[in-house]
Amino acid sequence: xxxxxxxxxIIGASALLFTVGSLAAGNGKVSVLWxxxxxxxxxxxxxxxxxxxxxxxxxxxPAKINSTLMGGTFLSIFVGSVIMGWxxxxxxxxxxxxxxxLDASIALGSAIVxxxxxxxxxxxxxxxxx
Length: 130
Description:
mainly alpha
């Protein structure tokens, strides 16, 4: 659970790089390195938490519904992408810095929620092992 929270926090930090990049664009131009750093961070965060998530679901799921829950895990990517598309629709209604700050707050808020439920979930997962 901690690795999943860390991955979410890395996504939030990467979105903050977009915020800083948009604030740095005083004359309308900014270095492409801001965007590259942000996208690299988001990609690295996905690689940080996704294998852990798959292993967690695979390990904790009962054998009879393991495949179904793994499919549900992949379905979560679809649902998340739909939600990201909805949030992305606000880009033209906000300043770029405000949009990327909103994006970062969603990811950082998720990290906080995951850390808040970490202990109860770990207890449940420990029960699944026995």
